[in-house]
Amino acid sequence: MPFLSRNHRSAILAACLVLVWTVCPSFSSDQSNSSDQSKPDAPIDGARIAVDPPSFDFGRVLPQKSLTREFSIRSFGAQDLVIESVSTSCGCTVADNLAKKVVKPGGSQPLRVTLTTPANPGSLTKSVMVRSNDPVRPLLEIKLKATVVAETP
What we know:
The chain is an alpha+beta fold.
């Protein structure tokens, strides 16, 4: 037989929560404010970067094909976002050159990425890195995935 019944456990838990809120009244409001700051919709001091979508899976694809996807680089900070450079993880991935492109707060800039699939079947993951003046996330990584399948005769 347990030392505390279910009724006792829930009453003790409720009392602990009341005690925490009484001793630290800012605890619950601090938690809600901090989550609001992480949302791209909340204005933040300085430049801030976001990408939509954050990654993309092309799914099952044929070998030696060029696949293109457009991403949206968004500025959600209080200052202009400066895209300093765009690089890729290998030569099979090409991204538009947006170096020194300025995106105003609340604005967006398209980024076109082309992935050329290899001749051999298998899964692959490639990256596009966007370097900017965002002090929180100066290097934004966009992941691209695909599964290359053999051509059927």
